[in-house]
Design goal:
alpha+beta
């Protein structure tokens, strides 16, 4: 698999040609192959890649799990 700009069509089994982007956004392009490979592996393994398996909760604010600034107070 090859992801990038100005690629030859026969340069890999799977080629994802991207338009030119600013260098500041290159980190987004760099993570594509790893994300696609992880999703493919999950699908092969029969795992739902869209669900949380190791975390039963999601922190939705800056107070954290315990609430309050110091981690033990109450929410206003």
């Amino acid at each position: 698999m090859l992801v990038g700009q100005n690629l030859a069509p026969d340069s890999g089994d799977l080629v994802l040609e991207l338009p030119p982007i600013s260098r500041q956004w290159q980190f987004l392009v760099d993570c594509f192959p790893a994300q696609l490979a992880a999703e493919h592996q999950a699908r092969i393994s029969g795992v739902d890649s869209d669900s949380f398996r190791l975390c039963a909760f999601i922190v939705e604010d800056e107070a954290g799990l315990l609430g309050g600034v110091a981690g033990g107070g109450t929410k206003p």
